[in-house]
């Protein structure tokens, strides 16, 4: 973690308030525009339990037949108005690209999210949408939905990559609309702009980084949940006080959420092949991880001050 900072002077200049966008919020509402397959179900359950302990409103989007993560300007405005309508303190949770609420003349909420190693995440997503229980849940919610092709359900990720199947070809600059573009997490930070559509491009990456830096209070990292919870507890205490206690003693200990036992292991060789096409996604993940480390280190340095 220390290697991320260039000098002792830079370390000593770190202050939690300098790295905390919570102070920019004009409305005591947490907006969690959750990325799929990064542990967001677990964080959602954590927030639900914390809402009882810490006395705040808990709101989440309903299950949708077709989930749209990119919105037209009028739908962004409607979403922003809804987020602003919740009585503070509250949280609102939805799978959606970053929506700049203040750009519609409404008070800025507190933005949070999670990220995960992008290749591990895309593998997780691949098998998640093929899990039997996923389709049972979908059928219960929407009985008229047709069942998928059994050949598609049985398709192995490694063979999908090796055969050059379109589903597992991650081509720079390619544009896919709809649910197929859940392959990348940076889109959930980049926003609704057309520049966010092409896969693995510098323009989309820079927009995503800028949103994190300027708007998000905390972007946690699934692989570093202890650090993530510590930062959330200190940077957004009104909502996350006691988060580590609930997570480690209740949720993670007894009830791992959304674990897919149907996901087979994928070889490191295949993962490395995929990584070559995920350069911007990996850079974005490392950027978020470095920012989280800085926030954590600022807390530790502040604790040591006389």
TrEMBL record:
Pfam families: Sulfotransfer_2. Coiled coil: none annotated. Its main location: Golgi. It is found in: Golgi apparatus membrane. Keywords: Glycoprotein, Golgi apparatus, Membrane, Signal-anchor, Transferase, Transmembrane, Transmembrane helix. It is a single-pass type II membrane protein. GO terms for cellular component: Golgi membrane. GO terms for molecular function: transferase activity. InterPro entries: Heparan_SO4_2-O-STrfase (IPR007734), P-loop_NTPase (IPR027417), Sulfotransferase (IPR005331). Belongs to the sulfotransferase 3 family. This is Heparan sulfate 2-O-sulfotransferase pipe.
């Amino acid at each position: 973690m220390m290697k991320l900072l260039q000098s002792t002077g830079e370390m000593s200049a770190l202050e939690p308030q300098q790295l905390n966008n919570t102070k920019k919020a004009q409305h005591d509402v947490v907006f969690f525009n959750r990325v799929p397959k990064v542990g967001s179900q677990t964080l959602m359950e954590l927030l639900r339990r914390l809402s009882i302990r810490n006395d705040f409103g808990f709101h989440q989007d309903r299950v949708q037949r077709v989930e749209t993560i990119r919105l037209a300007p009028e739908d962004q405005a409607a979403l922003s108005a809804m987020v602003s309508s919740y009585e503070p303190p509250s949280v609102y949770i939805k799978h959606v690209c970053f929506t700049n609420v203040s750009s519609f003349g409404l008070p800025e909420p507190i933005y949070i999210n999670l990220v995960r190693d992008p290749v591990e995440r895309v593998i997780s997503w691949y098998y998640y949408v093929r899990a039997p229980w996923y389709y049972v849940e979908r059928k219960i919610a929407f009985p008229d939905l047709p069942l998928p092709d059994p050949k598609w359900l049985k398709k192995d990720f490694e063979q999908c990559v090796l055969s050059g199947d379109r589903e597992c070809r991650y081509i720079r600059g390619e544009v896919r609309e709809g649910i197929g573009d859940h392959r990348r997490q940076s889109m959930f930070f980049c926003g609704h702009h057309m520049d966010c559509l092409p896969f693995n491009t510098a323009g989309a990456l820079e927009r995503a980084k800028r949103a994190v830096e300027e708007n998000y209070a905390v972007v946690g990292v699934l692989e570093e949940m202890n650090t993530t919870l510590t930062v959330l507890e200190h940077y957004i205490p009104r909502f996350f006080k006691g988060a580590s206690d609930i997570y480690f003693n209740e949720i993670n200990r007894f009830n791992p959420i959304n674990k897919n036992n149907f996901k087979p292991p994928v070889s490191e060789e295949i993962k490395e092949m995929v990584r070559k096409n995920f350069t911007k996604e990996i850079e974005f993940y490392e950027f978020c991880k470095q920012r989280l480390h800085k926030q954590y280190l600022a807390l530790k340095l502040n604790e040591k001050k006389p």
